[in-house]
Write a structure and sequence with these properties.
- The structure holds three protein chains of three kinds.
- By secondary structure, chain A is mostly helical.
- Chain A has one domain.
- Chain A is about 75% helix and about 5% strand.
- Chain A contains eleven helices and four strands; from the N terminus they run H-H-H-H-E-E-E-H-H-H-H-E-H-H-H.
- In chain A, helix 2 packs across helix 9 (about 220-235).
- Chain A is globular, with a radius of gyration of 18 Å.
- Chain B is α/β, with parallel strands linked by helices.
- Chain B is built from ten helices and ten strands.
- In chain B, the strands form two sheets. In chain B, strands 6-7-8-3-9-10 form a six-stranded mixed β-sheet, sandwiched between helices. In chain B, strands 2-1-4-5 form a four-stranded antiparallel β-sheet, covered by helices on one side.
- In chain B, helix 3 (about 105-110) packs parallel to helix 6, helix 4 (about 115-130) runs antiparallel to helix 6 (about 145-160) and helix 7 (about 175-190) packs parallel to helix 8.
- Chain C has three domains: about 5-235, no CATH class; about 360-450 and about 530-613, Rossmann fold (3-Layer(aba) Sandwich); about 450-515, no CATH class.
- In chain C, helix 1 runs antiparallel to helix 9 (about 200-225) and helix 10 (about 235-250) packs across helix 11.
- In chain C, the strands form two sheets. A six-stranded mixed β-sheet of chain C has the order 7-8-9-4-10-11, with helices on both faces. In chain C, strands 1, 2, 3, 5 and 6 form a five-stranded antiparallel β-sheet that branches.
- The longest helix of chain C is centred in the first third of the chain and has 27 residues, at about 5-30.
- Classes of the chains: A mainly alpha, B alpha/beta, C alpha/beta.
- Chains in contact: A-B, A-C, B-C.
- At the A-C interface, helix 3, helix 4, helix 9 and helix 11 of A face helix 4, helix 10 and helix 12 of C.
C-alpha cells in the first residue's frame, strides 16, 4: 500500500507539471492548428533562464517569473516569425511538423551550446516533508501541485468568463466566423501564444524542480507525455488536456511502481498510439 | 415581433466589382445597390458568382477592382472583422455556427462587440424572434438540425444588430415549408425594421416573393435586374435559369 | 591525407547516401512521410549484428542478445536488408490510415522513440543501452584478409561504394519507369491516382518495404564497419538528420539525395575536424552547434528553397519527329492500345449499317438500385434508381444540393454507399474499391483542380494508361527494354489525344502551370487515356470558354458514337440542350424526371425545382 501511495504522490506531481504543460500545448494547437513540437525545447529554455537567475544569487522563484516572461515572448516570436509565415504560404501540415522539428533543434541545442552538456540543478531547499494519509510530499512538491490547480482554475476562468477567453474559443472553433463576429483573430492568436508561452515557461521550471537535475535534452521524453495527455483529451480541448494529464501522470508513476521504472513512459507512448489509431479527436472531442 | 434597431440601416453601393480567388476573376464589373428597408436578392444558376459577390463584400474574397461602399465608408478589401465592426452582418452558407459551443455561447459570440450589460438584453430579443432556440440554450450547436442551425446562424448575426445584412443562401438544405417561413417571417422583417438586406438564394421564386428588387446573375455578370414583377414578366427570365435559346446568348466579348 | 581517414569518410558517405536514397524514394518520389525511418536502418544493423555474432554465452557472456548465429559474410548483409524490409510491414498500418498527415507523422516519430526505449530497457533482446559490440567484420575468420590492413579496409570501402551505386541504379530504374510515374502521381494527388486505377495500399507497402530494405542494408554495412551498435546511434534525431539531408539535397531527385547525404551527415562530421579545439570552449559546444545548424538549414531551406539544391528534374518526353500522315493512321504496336486511338476528327455517322438505336432501347450499362447516401443525419441522396445506357451521353442536372456530385462519387467508388446497389455491366460493384472500378473501365473526373501538378501534361496522360508492363514493381526493375514498347504506344496515343484537343505544344509543361480551362482539358484527356468504357464527368465545362465547351461537347458525342458511355454532371444547361440525351434531373437527393432538355423544360415540376430550389 505504501508503494501505491508514494507512487500516487509522485503521480500527482507529474500530473501537475503535465497539466500545466499540456493545457498550454493544446490551446496553441486549438487556436493555430499547428503541432508545436518545439514546445519541449521552450520549456527547457525556460528552466535554464530560471537557472541563470538562480545562479546569479536570486531565489529560483524569481527565476520562475523571469522564465515565464521570456518564454512568453519567445513563443510569440516563434508563431509570428516562423509558423504564421509558413501557414500563409499554404505549407502542408506535415511540412509544418518538419519546421517545428527544425525549431526544436535550434532552440534545444542552442540552449545546450550556451549552457553546456552537464546536468545542473537549482539551488533551493525542498522544504519540510509532509505526511498526509500515507502520502509523502515536500513543500516544493505541494507548491507545484498548488500552482497547477491555480493554473487550471485560471484557465477555466479565462475561457469561460472573460471576453478574451470567449474570443479564443470562437477562434479555435471557426476562425472565419469569429472574424465575422468582429473578433480580431490575429490579435487573439498573438495573445494566446503569449499566455501559453508563459505556461510553457512555468511548466519548464516546475519540471526542472521536480526532476532535481536536468540538462538541455531533459524534456525530449516529456514532450511525448505531453502529446499523450493532449491526444487523450482531444487536441485543442483545454479540459481534455487537464483530464489527460491526470490520467497519464498517474498511470506512468503508478505503473512505474509495479513494472520496472524504465518502462513507465511506455504506458504513455502506447496510450498515445492507441488514441491516434482509434480516436484521434480524443476522449472529449467530437466524433470525427 | 420586430427587433428595434439600435443603428440606422446602411445603404450598400457596389461599383464595378471584379473579384476572384486568384487567377481568373469569377465576377466582373458588377454594380448593384441595396437601401435600408429593402430586400435585394441575387439569383441565378450555379456558378454565376452569387456567393463570390457576397463574399467580396464581406471581406472574405479579394476584390481586384471596383469599390464597395457601405453607408459613407469605402469598405473595399477591409478585413472581415473590421467590416463586422462597421455594422455589416454576414451569414455564410457553410460553417455558419460555432459547432463545439452551446447555443447560448453562439449567441454570445455574436454579441462580442457589445458591452457586457447589453448582451443579456440582446439575447432576449433574439429569443423572442426565434423561440425555438430558447429551449435549447445549453445544447451543443453541432447537434442541431438543419433548420435549427440556420435559425441559430441568423440569431447570431442579429446579436450584432447590423445596418446591412449579407445572407448567403440561408435556406439551403431546409425543407420548403421551413425555408418559406424563414424568408417571409424573418428575412422580410429585417428590412421592415429598417436594415438593408442583400440575400443570395437558389430558390428564386421564394425569394422574389419577398424582394423589393432583384439581380439575376449569369457567368459572373449581371444579366437582368428589376422588381419581381418586371422580371417574372420577361420571357427570358425562366430561360436564364434553365438555358434554352434565349439565354444561350454567350457572355459578351469573351476572348 | 591519412588513408584511414579517407576510408572512414568514404564508408560513411556510402552508408549515408544509401539511407538517403531509400528515404528519397519513399518520401521524395512516393510521398510517404515516414518519421520512423531510422528504425529500418537500426533493424538492419541489429540483424547483421546478431546474424554475424556467435551465441551470446559464447562471446564472453557479457552481452545478452537474441540470435547469435555466427553466419558468414555476406549473409549478415543480406539478412540486414531482409529484416529492414520486413520491419516495414507493420508500418503500413500506421501510414495507410485515414489520419491527418501531421498526426500520423507524430505517431511514427513516437513509434521510433518507443522502440528505442524498449530496446534500451529490455536487455535480453539486444543488450540494452550498452548495445552490441565485437561484431565480426566480413570474412574475419578466413585468413585471406587480415582485418587491420589497409588492403582489407579498401576492399570493404569499395564494396560499400559499389553497393551504394547499385542502390542508386535500383531506385533510378524504379523512378524512371511507368511505375515510378504512378508513384509520383500518388504523391501529388492520391485520391485522383486511386480513381485512375492505382492501388495505393500496394504502392505504399512496396515503397515502405523497398525503403526499409535499403535502409536495413545501410545499417548492416555500417554495423560491420564500426563493429558496434547501440540505441544511442538511432534516436529520433537521426531521422531528422536524414530528412534534412533529403530536403536540402532535393527531395525526389536521387542525385540530390546523394548530395544531401554528403552535405549533411557527412559534411557536418567533417567540418568539425577542421574547427580548432580549445580547452577554453565547453566540450559540448561543437556538437550542439552542429545540431543548431541542421535545424537552421531545415527551416531556411523549407522557406527559401523547398525543392532543394537539386530539384526533381522535369521528365521531358521527346515526341517522335514529324510523322507522315499515313503513319498516324497506322495502328501502333501494342494490342489494346490500338483500338482506342481516337481519330483526329469525329467520324462521319454514315459508317453504321443500321441507324443507331434510340437511347431508351440500348442496353443498360450502369445502374443504381435504390441508392442512398446519408451522412451526419442528412440524406444527400435518397433512394435513387437510375439507368445509364450504352453509347449515350447522359446528362445529370439539378439545383445546388440536389445530390448530383454525391451520386457520381458513389458510382465511381470515391464515396461509400449507405444503402442500395450499384450494378455495372451486369455485375454488382457496390463494394468494389475505386481503383478496381477504374480497371474495369469505369473512370471519373473531378470537379476541382486535380491534375498531378509536378508531372508534365504528357506524364499526366501517360499515368492513366492501364496495362503498361512497366507499371508494376517487377516491370520497373526489368528495365526499359521490357516496357519500352508499351510506353511508345502510350505516348503515341497521348500525342493523338493532345492534338485532338489542341494542346500538343503543352505536352512537356508542368500540368500545374496551365490555365484553368487548359487544366480541365488535361483532366478529360487523362480520363480518356484510361480507356474507359464508361466515363463519369463531374462538371467538365466549369470555367471553360463557351467555344471550347462546345468543342469538348462535340468530342464527347464522337466518343459516344464510337461506343463509349458517358454520364455528365453539368450546370451549363445550354450544353445539355446541344449534346445530351437523355438528361436526368435531380432535386433534394431524388430523381425528378428524365428526358431531353426540350421535354424537361416543358415539365412544371422541373421548372419549379430550378426556380424554387
Amino acid at each position: 500500500m505504501t508503494i501505491f501511495l508514494s507512487s500516487l504522490g509522485f503521480g500527482l506531481v507529474t500530473a501537475s507539471v503535465l497539466a500545466i504543460a499540456a493545457v498550454g500545448f493544446t490551446l496553441q494547437f486549438g487556436v493555430t492548428d499547428v503541432l508545436n513540437l518545439a514546445y519541449g525545447a521552450i520549456m527547457i529554455a525556460g528552466a535554464f533562464v530560471a537557472y541563470v537567475v538562480n545562479q546569479a544569487g536570486l531565489s529560483v522563484w524569481v527565476g520562475l517569473v523571469v522564465a515565464v516572461i521570456a518564454c512568453s515572448l519567445g513563443s510569440v516570436l516563434l508563431n509570428s516569425g516562423v509558423y504564421t509565415p509558413f501557414q500563409r504560404r499554404g505549407t502542408s501540415p506535415i511540412t509544418l511538423v518538419i519546421v517545428s522539428l527544425g525549431m526544436t533543434l535550434i532552440i534545444e541545442f542552442g540552449v545546450q551550446a550556451l549552457a553546456g552538456g552537464t546536468a545542473v540543478s537549482y539551488t533551493m531547499s525542498q522544504g519540510t516533508t509532509f505526511h498526509a494519509g500515507g502520502l509523502i510530499l515536500s513543500v516544493v512538491q505541494l507548491v507545484v501541485i498548488a500552482l497547477s490547480i491555480v493554473v487550471m482554475l485560471g484557465v477555466h476562468g479565462l475561457l469561460r468568463y472573460t471576453r478574451l477567453g470567449k474570443a479564443m474559443r470562437a477562434t479555435a472553433a471557426n476562425k472565419s466566423l469569429a472574424r465575422n463576429c468582429g473578433i480580431r483573430t490575429d490579435r487573439v492568436i498573438t495573445i494566446t501564444w503569449a499566455l501559453t508561452g508563459g505556461l510553457c515557461g512555468l511548466a519548464g521550471v516546475v519540471f526542472a524542480m521536480d526532476s532535481g537535475s536536468f540538462d538541455a535534452t531533459a524534456t525530449d521524453l516529456f514532450l511525448i507525455l505531453i502529446l499523450a495527455a493532449v491526444f487523450l483529451g482531444g487536441p485543442g480541448q483545454a479540459y481534455g488536456a487537464m483530464l489527460g494529464a491526470v490520467v497519464i501522470g498517474l498511470a506512468t508513476e503508478i505503473s512505474a511502481a509495479y513494472i520496472t521504472a524504465d518502462y513507465k513512459y511506455v504506458v504513455a507512448f502506447v496510450a498515445l498510439l492507441i488514441m491516434l489509431g482509434v480516436r484521434p479527436t480524443g476522449l472529449l472531442g467530437a466524433r470525427a | 415581433m420586430s427587433a428595434e434597431l439600435a443603428l440606422p440601416g446602411l445603404p450598400l453601393r457596389a461599383e464595378k466589382v471584379t473579384a476572384g480567388y486568384g487567377g481568373d476573376p469569377v465576377i466582373r464589373d458588377i454594380t448593384l445597390s441595396a437601401d435600408p428597408g429593402e430586400v435585394v436578392s441575387l439569383v441565378g444558376p450555379n456558378g454565376s458568382g452569387k456567393s463570390t459577390l457576397l463574399k467580396s463584400m464581406a471581406g472574405v474574397v479579394h476584390v481586384s477592382s471596383g469599390t464597395v461602399r457601405v453607408g459613407d465608408r469605402d469598405l473595399t478589401n477591409w478585413a472581415p472583422e473590421e467590416i463586422a465592426r462597421a455594422a455589416v452582418g454576414y451569414v455564410p452558407q457553410v460553417d455558419d455556427i460555432f459547432s463545439p459551443l452551446s447555443v447560448r455561447e453562439n449567441l454570445e459570440m455574436g454579441g462580442y462587440l457589445l458591452r457586457r450589460s447589453q448582451v443579456a438584453g440582446r439575447v432576449e430579443r433574439v429569443l423572442a424572434i426565434f423561440p425555438r432556440l430558447g429551449v435549447m440554450l445549453s445544447r451543443s450547436a453541432g447537434k442541431l438540425s438543419g433548420g435549427e442551425r440556420k435559425m441559430l446562424a441568423m440569431g447570431r448575426v442579429l446579436m450584432l444588430d447590423p445596418g446591412l445584412f449579407l445572407l448567403d443562401e440561408p435556406t439551403a438544405n431546409l425543407a420548403p415549408i421551413v425555408a418559406t417561413a424563414l424568408l417571409t417571417e424573418h428575412v422580410r422583417q429585417l428590412a421592415d425594421s429598417g436594415a438593408a438586406v442583400l440575400i443570395v438564394e437558389q430558390r428564386a421564386k421564394a425569394v422574389l416573393a419577398i424582394s423589393d428588387r432583384s439581380y439575376v446573375l449569369g457567368g459572373g455578370e449581371v444579366r437582368m435586374q428589376g422588381t419581381p414583377a418586371e422580371l417574372s414578366g420577361r420571357p427570358d427570365f425562366v430561360e436564364s435559369f434553365l438555358g434554352g435559346r434565349g439565354a444561350a446568348a454567350a457572355p459578351s466579348g469573351d476572348a | 591525407m591519412n588513408a584511414f581517414y579517407l576510408i572512414n569518410l568514404l564508408v560513411y558517405a556510402a552508408v549515408d547516401a544509401m539511407a538517403c536514397l531509400g528515404l528519397s524514394q519513399q518520401f521524395g518520389v512516393a510521398g510517404v512521410t515516414n518519421f520512423g525511418f531510422i528504425i529500418f536502418q537500426a533493424a538492419g544493423g541489429y540483424a547483421a549484428a546478431v546474424l554475424a555474432l556467435p551465441h551470446d554465452s559464447a562471446n564472453g557472456g557479457f552481452q545478452s542478445y537474441i540470435g547469435g548465429l555466427n553466419l558468414p559474410f555476406p549473409l549478415p548483409w543480406i539478412g540486414a536488408a531482409v529484416v529492414g524490409g520486413l520491419i516495414a510491414v507493420p508500418f503500413t498500418f500506421l501510414v495507410g490510415r485515414r489520419l491527418r498527415g501531421d498526426f500520423a507523422a507524430v505517431g511514427l516519430l513516437v513509434t521510433a522513440v518507443l522502440l528505442n526505449l524498449l530496446v534500451t530497457n529490455y536487455r535480453p533482446l539486444l543488450n540494452g543501452s550498452a548495445g552490441l559490440s565485437l561484431i565480426p567484420t566480413p570474412l574475419h575468420g578466413d585468413n585471406v584478409f587480415s582485418v587491420q590492413t589497409a588492403g582489407y579496409q579498401w576492399v570493404f570501402t569499395v564494396a560499400a561504394i559499389v553497393l551504394a551505386l547499385a542502390v542508386y541504379v535500383f531506385v533510378r530504374r524504379i523512378t524512371g519507369s511507368p511505375y515510378g510515374r504512378s508513384l509520383r502521381a500518388m504523391r501529388d494527388n492520391d485520391v485522383v491516382a486511386d480513381s485512375l486505377g492505382k492501388n495505393l495500399l500496394s504502392l505504399r507497402t512496396a515503397m515502405l518495404v523497398t525503403g526499409g530494405a535499403i535502409a536495413g542494408l545501410s545499417g548492416g554495412i555500417l554495423v560491420t564497419y564500426i563493429t558496434t551498435w547501440s540505441p544511442a546511434a538511432w534516436g529520433y534525431a537521426e531521422t531528422v538528420v536524414l530528412f534534412a539531408a533529403v530536403i536540402i539535397g532535393g527531395a525526389g531527385n536521387h542525385l540530390g539525395a546523394i548530395l544531401g547525404a554528403i552535405l549533411v551527415p557527412v559534411g557536418f562530421e567533417e567540418i568539425t575536424r577542421f574547427i580548432p579545439t580549445s580547452n577554453s570552449l565547453p566540450p559540448n559546444l561543437i556538437p550542439s552547434l552542429q545540431w543548431v545548424a541542421i535545424g537552421l538549414l531545415i527551416v531556411i531551406f523549407l522557406w527559401l528553397r523547398p525543392q532543394g539544391i537539386l530539384p526533381e528534374r522535369k521528365r521531358v518526353i521527346r515526341l517522335p519527329a514529324a510523322r507522315a500522315p499515313a503513319a498516324r493512321m497506322a495502328a501502333p504496336p501494342g494490342g489494346a492500345a490500338a483500338a482506342a486511338v481516337p481519330s483526329p476528327r469525329p467520324p462521319a455517322p454514315q459508317a453504321h449499317e443500321q441507324p443507331p438505336a434510340a437511347p431508351q432501347d440500348r442496353p443498360v450499362v450502369l445502374e443504381t438500385v435504390d441508392v442512398t447516401r446519408e451522412f451526419g443525419g442528412v440524406q444527400a441522396v435518397a433512394g435513387v434508381s437510375i439507368q445509364v445506357r450504352k453509347g449515350t451521353l447522359t446528362g445529370l442536372i439539378g439545383p445546388n444540393g440536389a445530390g448530383k456530385s454525391t451520386l457520381l462519387a458513389m458510382l465511381a467508388g470515391t464515396l461509400p454507399v449507405t444503402s442500395g446497389k450499384i450494378i455495372y455491366e451486369g455485375r454488382d460493384i457496390t463494394g468494389v474499391p475505386a481503383f478496381r472500378r477504374a480497371r474495369l473501365g469505369l473512370v471519373r473526373t473531378f470537379q476541382l483542380a486535380s491534375e498531378f501538378k509536378r508531372l508534365t501534361v504528357m506524364e499526366n496522360l501517360l499515368s492513366a494508361v492501364p496495362g503498361n508492363r512497366g507499371d508494376t514493381f517487377r516491370g520497373s526493375l526489368l528495365g526499359k527494354r521490357y516496357w519500352q514498347a508499351d510506353e511508345t504506344a502510350a505516348i503515341a496515343r497521348a500525342e493523338a489525344i493532345l492534338e485532338r484537343f489542341g494542346l500538343e505544344q503543352f505536352a512537356n509543361h508542368y500540368a500545374g502551370d496551365l490555365s484553368g480551362g487548359q487544366r480541365r482539358l488535361v483532366e478529360i484527356m487523362r480520363a480518356l487515356m484510361a480507356e474507359p468504357a464508361t466515363l463519369l464527368l463531374d462538371e467538365p465545362m466549369a470555367g471553360v470558354h463557351p467555344n471550347l465547351a462546345r468543342r469538348i461537347g462535340n468530342e464527347l458525342v464522337a466518343l459516344c458514337e464510337e461506343g463509349m458511355t458517358i454520364l455528365m454532371v453539368e450546370h451549363e444547361l445550354a450544353i445539355m440542350d446541344e449534346f445530351c440525351d437523355p438528361v436526368v434531373v435531380m432535386a433534394e437527393g431524388a430523381v425528378l424526371a428524365e428526358g431531353t432538355m426540350e421535354q424537361l423544360r416543358g415539365r412544371s415540376e422541373v421548372v419549379e425545382a430550378y426556380l424554387v430550389g
